[in-house]
Specification:
heterodimer, A: mainly beta, Protocatechuate 3,4-Dioxygenase, subunit A, globular, B: alpha/beta, 8-stranded mixed sheet, two-stranded parallel sheet, 11 strands, about 15% helix
Amino acid sequence: MAAVVSPQPPVAERLTPRDWASHPPYVYPAYKSTIKRGPTKPLVPLARALAQRRAPVYGHEDIGPLDHDLTQNAAKNGEPLGERIVVTGRVLDEGGRPVANTLVEIWQANAAGRYVHKVDQHHAPLDPNFLGAGRCLTDAQGRYRFLTVKPGAYPWGNHPNGWRPNHIHFSLFGEYFASRLVTQMFFPGDPLLALDPIYQSAPEGARERLVSQLNLDAVGEPGFALGFEFDIVLRGAAETPMGR
Amino acid sequence: MTLKQTPSQTVGPYFAYGLTPEQYGYDYKSPFGPAIAGPEARGEHIRLTGRVFDGDGVPVNDAMIEILQPDAEGRFVASVSEARASDFRGFGRCGTGTHASLHFWFDTVKPGAAAPGEAPHIDVIVTMRGMLSHAFTRVYFDDEAEANARDPVLAALPPERRATLVARREAHPGGAAYRFDIRMQGPKETVFFDL
């Protein structure tokens, strides 16, 4: 099979730094598990920004034909229950350049708020037609698109009667080893956001970027599904001053 | 145009069926797994293994470790066709929740030095439930003492912290294994990098 990711753009001289004003701290006591798991010593800066170190390689053949369609990729005898939604957006770098051909992996609870994961003991039904995992590659404009059902909220043991807001987990590489991002997408207007220590752990002014926007035009097929738009911004090549 | 980075969030406890489905026995293909080098790959075949410990010294059962490395000649894989031709992927992913002792493992080859003056090493991404942002670290090798002594990254660290990045060679059926434990906190906290 000759399906290989298109030639990569030239290597950057240096990357934009990890913007710690946008990311949560390692230890955020309201999210209790961070207290024993977050590194406590200052990070050691690497002299070289590892700009030449690329993300891992993968090809189109690593993506199954239904991997982007969570309403079909695990269907056994019908369609999954729940509100059908399209989740789409662009992967960009801080300069607004699209990140093309990059892998986007997602996973989520089903419409009842239950994960397929064996460790999840929440007393809500599994859906025999829904796994909740998907992946795709972005197109030349950096756009990804998934068809799925809206995940339900679910309780967790962090604090009394704590409930996670509806969310979808995202994992991305971008072009570089250093542009790795694992994050979560939320839904607009969710009253649980104000009570969720994971969402709240991202600094004010930054956490709002984790909330998708309702976009009924994103679907392209009226009456079929709700559409949510979620753009993702990764580290990328730093601008090099001309004539430097 | 200047956009702001999307904030990181935790991978949570339930990543297994999305990111490491084959390892955890889910009926879904994994794009990456613990096998980095196949039998045809050139170089010394090794197993890299270790555990992740929290601040109480308890092994973590829901961490995900990813590693990126060059081949035995110090070259990074540049394309899928190259990876296929050399039987070497250069990247792997393993969760800590499927083995009874909660260790991760990678079957790979010992990397060559990627640049003059650098000691051979593997770059590592650590993430888990309870980490809101991933952390970067590195694996060096204890049988490369001379190269390690010259490595600029190791040299810049306080001497007492260097050992946290050096994997120990052990006997392993059919070849060599290196043990690399990751300590999130405490007096022997692993060195994590900002890069």
